[in-house]
Amino acid sequence: MTMSEPQFDDLYREIILDHFRRPRNRGALPSPTQHAEGMNPVCGDSIELDLLLHAGAIDAIAFDGQGCAISQSSASLLTERLKGRTIEEARRVLEMFRAMLIDGALPDRELGDLEAFEGVAKLPARVKCALLSWNVLQEGLDQAGASATPPATAATAAPGGKS
Amino acid sequence: MFDVKRLQQDFPILHQEVNGHRLVYLDNAATTQKPRQVIEKLVYYYEHDNANIHRGIHALAVRATDQYEAVRGKVANLIGASNPQDIVFTRNTTESINLIARTWGDANIGVGDEIVLTVMEHHSNIVPWQLLARRKGATLRYINTSDDGVLDIDELRRTVGPRTKLVSVTHVSNVIATINPIADIAAIAHAAGALLLVDGAQAAPHMPVDVSQLGCDLYAFSSHKMLGPTGVGVLWAKPGFLQETEPFLGGGEMISLVKPDSSTWADVPHKFEAGTPNIADVIAFGAAIDYLQDLTMAAVREHEMEITGLAMDRLRSIDGLVIHGPPRSEDRGGAVSFALEGIHPHDVSTIVDSYGVAIRAGHHCAQLLMRRLGVPATSRASFAIYNDSDDVDVLIEALHHAQRLFANDDVRTAV
Questions:
Q1: Is the distance from CB of A68 to CB of B344 less than 8 angstroms?
Q2: Looking at residue A126, which CATH number applies to its domain?
Q3: Across the interface, do A3 and B355 touch by the CB < 8 Å criterion?
Q4: Which of B21, B27, B344, B379 to probe the A interface (max A CBs under 10 A)?
Q5: What percent of chain B is predicted at pLDDT more than 70?
Q6: What is the pLDDT at residue A148?
Q7: Out of A2-16, A24-38, B177-191, which region has the weakest mean confidence (pLDDT)?
Q8: What is the value of pTM for the model shown?
């Protein structure tokens, strides 16, 4: 090295690079109950998410997509963190992840490996990369909520773990 | 040629650290930095001469008016326009193009007429014509490029025909830096009786431009990409054009006589400058033109071609790096878009930013060109008069670091 080590290499922590190089749960589910997709038009990052929801839990989850290391590893870590978990927990983790990135909240222990994205909060231009798969997740969960819940109670069911 | 190290002293913003490193500013195609001569002119104007122009009798109004109008003359001189009255000040290149779409376009484009564009246009030279085409039932036609990003002139020749009312092309691509053969395009457009508008946003700042030699009918560019302030654009029109064209915005400054139901228009160019214009920034833009002309545009071009050529040679030495656009620096402007295998442009941009290097990543407001290149986005380093080989060294070092970071082994043991 001819120069001093750059300051925020910890943005690209090894776990982020590892999930970018070797994404977990990548592909499509044979028979998902939900499918959602999203895109960041500015950079062309795209994420598709398949969910197999059963009895209030995420029995199976898979993603596909292309884009930067932050967006793709975030999706990979999302699937790893939420596979086999309840929808309620998924919504809770979703809000914690958003709080860390958008409000700069300290990572909650419940986030687990997802705390690796804490450094992204310092780079406003990249926050949307980390959030892409989570916005897609919300859409998938909201679809499920909308189709499973009778219209009369949909309003109370929709906010999920938010309150 | 000029002494780059000495010239860097004129740019206060360059003398700072970003993320613990000297700022290396390579996002000049987005906007350039400003020399202290421009900044001081802006401050001086507000501290000494500020007044509204064209209507006051008092001393300050006269001083402000004289300085504002003198810049029109400087712009005319810069681009070889025979008459300063053919130059309209707008907010930016985008507004210059929209002005034409809304005035000449609305009056002259009808159902079935064709507007010919290229796939390398900035969105600002696409969307105004889409809006116009939708209003009038006209059709847009797009000319493709070769794999090297060179415009297909044969396709242009085949496409431009009796239905073509307008050809609108960029002089220099903001992404791949292709320099388009405007004189040839003008001949093709004019043979079909079509008008030629040229988006000069990436050309006027970086090379000698002479509208009388180019043969175009309309030429648009922005102050902020050529050392001047933001908020000032230029529209040049061929002699007589503005006189025959209806006004764009209505209001003060642009009228001669106002009656209850109708008005008569002020002479050109004031007919197109409704309301109080951006007086201070136009005057400071004059200082930017002086700065460039003191260097001479030929020397600006020579320096930028040299530094771009050097950067391209060094970039090519990086394994897995591909440069988009024309391969020779003689055939292109100072923007170098590239792809680094396995690393998304946004990751490249973030990593080089940690070295204090400002480059752009994204679609560069040119989604049609991204589609033609078959990429979602590119990384773009773009050079200006104050960039030198030290800047290129830091860029290359930062890109090597990005590659090490994304290589398979743990970077912290590899570095």
A1: yes
A2: 3.90.1010.10
A3: yes
A4: B344
A5: 98
A6: 56
A7: A2-16
A8: 0.91
Determine whether the interchain pair A21/B408 forms a contact, defined as Cβ–Cβ distance below 8 Å. yes
Q: How far apart are CA B227 and CA B221, in angstroms?
A: 13
pLDDT value at residue B139:
98
To test the contact with chain A by mutation, choose from B18, B343, B350 the residue with the greatest count of A C-beta atoms within 10 A, namely: B350
Total number of domains in chain A:
1
Distance from CA of A108 to the nearest CA of B (A): 26
Closest CA to B212 of B185, B180, B237: B237
Amino acid letter for position B207: M
Domain residue spans of chain B: 4-30+297-414, 39-293
Strand partners, B142: B117
Query: Domain for residue A101, yes or no?
Result: yes
In angstroms and rounded to an integer, the radius of gyration of the C-alpha atoms of chain B is: 22
* B110 CB-contact burial (10 Å; exposed 0-12 / middle 13-18 / buried 19+): exposed
In angstroms, what CA-CA distances link B223 with B7, B31, B34, B286, B291? 19, 9, 10, 9, 13
Indicate the class that CATH gives domain B39-293: alpha beta
pLDDT tens digits for range B238-296: 999 999 999 999 998 899 999 999 999 999 999 999 999 999 999 999 999 999 999 99
Q: Which CATH number fits domain B4-30+297-414: 1.10.3210.10, 1.10.3720.10, 3.90.1150.10, 2.60.40.1760?
A: 3.90.1150.10
> Using 50, 70 and 90 to split pLDDT, how confident is the model at B376?
confident
Distance in Å, alpha carbon of B364 to nearest chain A alpha carbon: 9
d(CA B348, CA A147): 42
Could you tell me if B118 and B151 are in contact, meaning their C-beta atoms sit under 8 angstroms apart? Answer: yes
